Amino acid sequence: MTTGTSKSALITGVTGQDGSYLAELLLEKGYTVHGLVRRSSSFNTERIDHIYQEPQEAERRLILHHADLSDGVALVNLLRDLRPDEVYNLGAQSHVRVSFDAPLYTGDVTGLGSMRLLEAIRASGVDTRIYQASSSEMFGATPPPQNERTPFHPRSPYGCAKVFAYWSTVNYREAYDMFAVNGILFNHESPRRGETFVTRKITRAVARIQAGLQDRLYLGNLDAVRDWGYAPEYVEAMWRMLQQDAPDDYVVATGVAATVRDFVETSFAAAGLDWSQYVRFDPKYERPSEVDALIGDAGKAEARLGWKPATTWRELAQIMVAADIEQLAAELSGARVRIDR
Ligand code: NDP
Ligand code: GDR
């Protein structure tokens, strides 16, 4: 399936925030990109529409395939047919709060799904490298700063599922000599962030409040501390991990933290608004067990991958507010909304 001498990659979760940025990055590097898309009753490809190519187009380099991380046979068939050089497992039920409502589904897709993919690689006999999207949520209750040697103490079904996937990846590396790596990524955001994660929920609300379309924003725990980075920079780290001579696991983070309250204040201020007039508490958004503080130490990624973050969380908040204001203005004027930010 590779065109010419360039590499090919399979991305699960290609329709998500990270999948869309990674697909762009790999296309720029000359890869043929295969994206796994799950069946939905409505369109779920908005984040990749700007790079989509019709099946009839000659020399297509972005090719979408229907499958699902819950369908192990489909994964074997896909791997056997495509024989990609690299596999990026970004697909997941990725919402921590939702994982308390749908714990078994989250365990199935986010946890077992990873092992299905590893097993599909083994069963199909494809010589490939695999990246597993591991998460700072695995550290959970272990105090910061967190690095590759920090013990895991997950605090949600999502975190537990990611720990399972992490160790499955390590185990397949050790047992079968697979080039399998874990990127332990701390929170990373962008204008493409899902609307129910806290940063995007805030910046979207700022745009709507400024336009007079909304007068309240209901949030949960404002004291949580997070290490927020900029998603396009983080997908570069994923790619670098698969270009190394030997497989290993890496933390990717900025090392700088802020509270949800700080992010709220900065985002509202970016639109000239005083947050305290609009933000209200709703216990509905609290979690049965919370992760209080995540602050990453990405020293290993800097030393070995030459990776360093560039965008601060304050700049990120400003980028996201500006993008949401622009998107809302486009929606209100009936213009086509740009996603290629
Ligand atoms: P998103 O929630 O934006 O994207 C998740 C992707 O997984 C979507 O493409 C979604 O498809 C797909 N997906 C969901 N269920 C299935 C399934 N059953 N089979 C196949 N695909 C499925 O997540 P992000 O882009 O933010 O994150 C990418 C990965 O990185 C995830 O695994 C996440 O857990 C992990 N991660 C994210 C961090 C972050 O801060 N963003 C930090 C650390 C780890 P659809 O579009 O149809 O919903
Ligand atoms: P997180 O991200 O749980 O860290 O997981 P999220 O943005 O959902 O929450 C961050 C913090 O904000 C607090 N919070 C709220 N969260 C949401 N979603 N909605 C609210 O109204 C709200 N009010 C306060 C939360 O309690 C939490 O402390 C993300 C996901 O992308 C995971 O997939 C990924 O693995 C981790 O980041 C690293």
Automatic annotation (TrEMBL):
Residue stretches making up the NAD(P)-binding domain: 10-320
The enzyme's E.C. designation: 4.2.1.47
Key words of the record: Lyase, NADP
Domain of life the protein comes from: Bacteria
Xref: InterPro entries: GDP_Man_deHydtase (IPR006368), NAD(P)-bd_dom (IPR016040), NAD(P)-bd_dom_sf (IPR036291)
Catalytic activity line of the entry: GDP-alpha-D-mannose = GDP-4-dehydro-alpha-D-rhamnose + H2O
First-tier enzyme category under EC: lyase
MF (Gene Ontology): GDP-mannose 4,6-dehydratase activity
The keyword ATP-binding belongs to this UniProt entry's keyword annotation: no
Pfam families with a match to the protein in the record: GDP_Man_Dehyd
Cofactor: NADP(+)
Family: Belongs to the NAD(P)-dependent epimerase/dehydratase family. GDP-mannose 4,6-dehydratase subfamily.
Protein's job: Catalyzes the conversion of GDP-D-mannose to GDP-4-dehydro-6-deoxy-D-mannose.
NCBIfam families: gmd (TIGR01472)
The protein's name in its UniProt record: GDP-mannose 4,6-dehydratase
Species for this entry: Streptomyces polyrhachis
Encoding gene per record: gmd
